[in-house]
Amino acid sequence: xxxxxxxxxxxxxxxxxxxxxxxxxxxxxxxxxxxxxxxxxxxxxxxxxxxxxxxxxxxxxxxxxxxxxxxxxxxxxxxxxxxxxxxxxxxxxxxxxxxxxxxxxxxxxxxxxxxxxxxxxxxxxxxxxxxxxxxxxxxxxxxxxxxxxxxxxxxxxxxxxxxxxxxxxxxxxxxxxxxxxxxxxxxxxxxxxxxxxxxxx
Length: 201
Fold this sequence. Notes:
By secondary structure, this protein is mostly helical. It contains 9 helices and 3 strands. It has helices at residues 2-6, 18-29, 48-57, 76-84, 97-129, 133-143, 148-155, 159-173, 178-192, and strands spanning 37-39, 67-71, 89-92. Helix 7 (148-155) crosses helix 8. The longest helix has 33 residues, at 97-129. The radius of gyration is 22 Å and the shape is elongated.
């Protein structure tokens, strides 16, 4: 299989066991490489489904690391359950080489799109870092859907000051509405673990 993928310029790394895979995973996740993980259902120390569940419990994004199950021991119910739980696809052996290659390429494209999106979110995060402390306070309250007069009361400032800070926040973050701002902050929290978003709770 390694040879098959490398003949179409898709470098592949195999792991003899779960621990060797686990020890290198963060290195791969932190790289700029597009990724796809092929798992067999039956493996020496952990089943493919166990590894898959471990990935999900550990917080790894299945958009960053799409998972394809490839096995000679599958069944329809297992396939449906795996895909329903976030697997990219499920193939029973034997499958045609070309079909698998094309699906892996699609998974790699998904991983690449995640990286692009992540870079955009990082840029937004950097913009938030440039907000003043007061602008940040206003940002959180606006994202919660609070009216200017309510924000003014909570922060003990004038409504005109709130309007100025609100306009600055929208301008610096390039958003046009409170709903768009709330969506942005939610995505930052989900993808970047943006700790400043505690104010939204």
